[in-house]
Amino acid sequence: AMLRVACVLSAKKRRHLDFDQLVNEAVKYGLELRVVTLNETLEDQGSFDVVLHKLTDTIALANDGCHAAQQELHQLQAYRKRHPTVGLIDNLTSVGVLLDRGLTYSLAASMATAKQDGAPKQDLACKQIILSSFESPQEHETELQTPPFLVVKDAAAAVAALTTPSCELHYPVLCKSIVAHGSSQAHHMAIVFEATGLKDVTYPCVLQQFINHDAVVFKIFVIGEDISVVKRPSIRNLDAATQPQTIFFDSHKVSKADSASHLNKAGAHQDSDVELDIDGLRSSVLRLRQQLDLDLFGIDVVVSCDDSAAYIVDINYFPGYNGVAGFHSSLLKLLASRAQQAASADV
């Protein structure tokens, strides 16, 4: 018998996933994909082995007090209680963490420090991003680090923090909304170069150290155990001394494959010879996956011009996976393994 997947996905998300094609390919994996709604009980829509969702906007709305969104989440939670063996990709609580940039960065930072405290201090060479010229990348494990960050409630707190001598942050800083999904505001960001610029930013927000990274961002895409890296354009190098004016931008517009914003550096991601060694990063990424308790997420990583360290600048739930070779088969493989676990647990 076919294993059944309930898909709670917006029309827009289905379009991005090339959903009809996914449905056709799913048959080879013994899967039947069905679009469902949380406006009625799932039992009325079929019997399922796994639920696949992208409910980030719904969770954000529910957190904001929207009754309809709360009802939808309740519908799914109640279904899970009635059918505890049914798989869920991904756990709502875990997805909720990624909606809060402050929580997300804390989690990523604690993972990086736990690893460093537990391990003998390595020399710097091991921390360098391994360029592909190394013959045996297995020996060199690249650690993912997190830039210094602070959650601040208003401009006064931001100014005070940045003028404290012990503060790890220095200009330029990136200012991002705490909420990472659910509105266009989530992708509106600012780069601030001096104290007066902190007055123009919307609070509360997260201040994150801006790291010069040669206008290239690496999107690390995780689908269960499958990991791939796609190189995209990003913000060009900036210098607080020569650029006093705050820069406002939409993060979605500066890192698409064809981005040509004034903040990008034309052709940088095609010309750049900086590479991320995915084998060296694999154990770090899988550790993060365990910590986050998620199967579908993307990590934005930049490589610092200063010390060649790899920094996590954002983590997104169930991203677009554009440019990932074999995305459909990776996703279907994951769904099939979850569905089989559920079906065998149900016996």
Helix and strand arrangement:
Layout: E1 3-8, H1 11-17, H2 19-26, E2 31-35, E3 50-53, H3 56-63, H4 67-82, E4 87-89, H5 92-98, H6 101-118, H7 124-127, E5 144-145, E6 149-152, H8 155-163, E7 173-177, E8 188-192, E9 205-209, E10 216-223, E11 226-233, E12 247-250, H9 251-254, H10 268-271, H11 278-292, E13 296-303, E14 310-317, H12 327-345
Parallel strand pairs: 1-2, 1-3, 3-4, 5-14
Antiparallel strand pairs: 6-9, 7-8, 7-9, 8-12, 10-11, 10-13, 13-14
Question: Brief description of this entry?
Answer:
The protein is α/β, with parallel strands linked by helices. Helix content is 34%, strand content 22%. A hairpin with a 6-residue loop joins strand 13 (296-303) and strand 14 (310-317).
User: Order of SSEs, N→C?
Assistant: EHHEEHHEHHHEEHEEEEEEHHHEEH
What would the average pLDDT be, to the nearest integer?
86
Radius of gyration, taken over Cα atoms and rounded to an integer in Å:
21 Å
Shape summary? globular
Characterise this structure:
- The chain is α/β, with parallel strands linked by helices and 347 residues long.
- The protein contains twelve helices and 14 strands.
- The protein has helices at 11-17, 19-26, 56-63, 67-82, 92-98, 101-118, 124-127, 155-163, 251-254, 268-271, 278-292, 327-345, and strands at 3-8, 31-35, 50-53, 87-89, 144-145, 149-152, 173-177, 188-192, 205-209, 216-223, 226-233, 247-250, 296-303, 310-317.
- A five-stranded mixed sheet has the order 5-14-13-10-11. Strands 6-9-7-8-12 form a five-stranded antiparallel sheet, sandwiched between helices.
- α3 (56-63) packs across α4.
- The chain is globular.
- The protein starts with a strand and ends with a helix.
- 38% of the residues are buried.
- Residues 117-139 have low confidence and may be disordered.
